[in-house]
UniProtKB/TrEMBL annotation:
<comment type="subunit">
    <text>Homotrimer.</text>
</comment>
<feature type="binding site">
    <location>
        <position position="106"/>
    </location>
    <ligand>
        <name>Mg(2+)</name>
    </ligand>
</feature>
<dbReference type="GO" id="GO:0047443">
    <property type="term" value="F:4-hydroxy-4-methyl-2-oxoglutarate aldolase activity"/>
</dbReference>
<comment type="function">
    <text>Catalyzes the aldol cleavage of 4-hydroxy-4-methyl-2-oxoglutarate (HMG) into 2 molecules of pyruvate. Also contains a secondary oxaloacetate (OAA) decarboxylase activity due to the common pyruvate enolate transition state formed following C-C bond cleavage in the retro-aldol and decarboxylation reactions.</text>
</comment>
<feature type="binding site">
    <location>
        <position position="105"/>
    </location>
    <ligand>
        <name>substrate</name>
    </ligand>
</feature>
<keyword id="KW-0460">Magnesium</keyword>
<protein>
    <recommendedName>
        <fullName>Putative 4-hydroxy-4-methyl-2-oxoglutarate aldolase</fullName>
        <ecNumber>4.1.1.112</ecNumber>
        <ecNumber>4.1.3.17</ecNumber>
    </recommendedName>
</protein>
<dbReference type="Pfam" id="PF03737">
    <property type="entry name" value="RraA-like"/>
</dbReference>
<comment type="similarity">
    <text>Belongs to the class II aldolase/RraA-like family.</text>
</comment>
<dbReference type="GO" id="GO:0008948">
    <property type="term" value="F:oxaloacetate decarboxylase activity"/>
</dbReference>
<dbReference type="InterPro" id="IPR005493">
    <property type="entry name" value="RraA/RraA-like"/>
</dbReference>
<dbReference type="GO" id="GO:0046872">
    <property type="term" value="F:metal ion binding"/>
</dbReference>
<keyword id="KW-0479">Metal-binding</keyword>
<dbReference type="InterPro" id="IPR036704">
    <property type="entry name" value="RraA/RraA-like_sf"/>
</dbReference>
Amino acid sequence: MSMQDLAERFRAVDTTAICDADKTVRTMSSAIRPRSAQRRICGTAFTVRCRDDFLAVLRAVETAAPGDVIVVDGGGREIALAGELFARGALVRGLGGIVIDGGYRDMAYISGCDLPVYSRFVTPMAGTVSALGDLQTPVTCGGVTVNPGDIVLADEEGLIVVAPDQVDDLLARAAAVKDAEGRLVARLTAGATLSQVTNLDQHVDTLLRGEPSSLALLA
């Protein structure tokens, strides 16, 4: 599946439907927050590991392929590892976004920027620029492992990471979740209650008996 096809399929769902389809999906900490005007990400991870030094991030911006998402393991430190110039450079190269477990700065520009930018902190203090760091190695960002080539997906709800060999099936299951939700919304809009569109009463009674049960939507 091409990245264009993947992006099109992701537009039809959202990260909440993906998480409902698979409770084990890697979900970054909500401390990694959107900083730019554009929040939606769909791209291949280009990973970076560095500490208090942004040379590796600069190298990544200039090395990654168009559509790639720069994912930076900055150790969760409150030091800016990128700013306005990095975002401008990423836009020129057609990258898909920048996600930093560390700091970002230059919000006067970034807040209206079309490049999706996420970070743990906003801070004016930048790191040094003399350590090579590591590129394209497994990293930890937002509390989850991100491997080079993983698929990074983000929207207003947050950031998730999916192995490329799992994304096709996961998007299909997320689409089924959205379809079911659509039918539920239609019935609620028509005046049905949540108890009428789910097996809520039966589910609670079964749990009270100490037996396993699952909440389900009713046709």
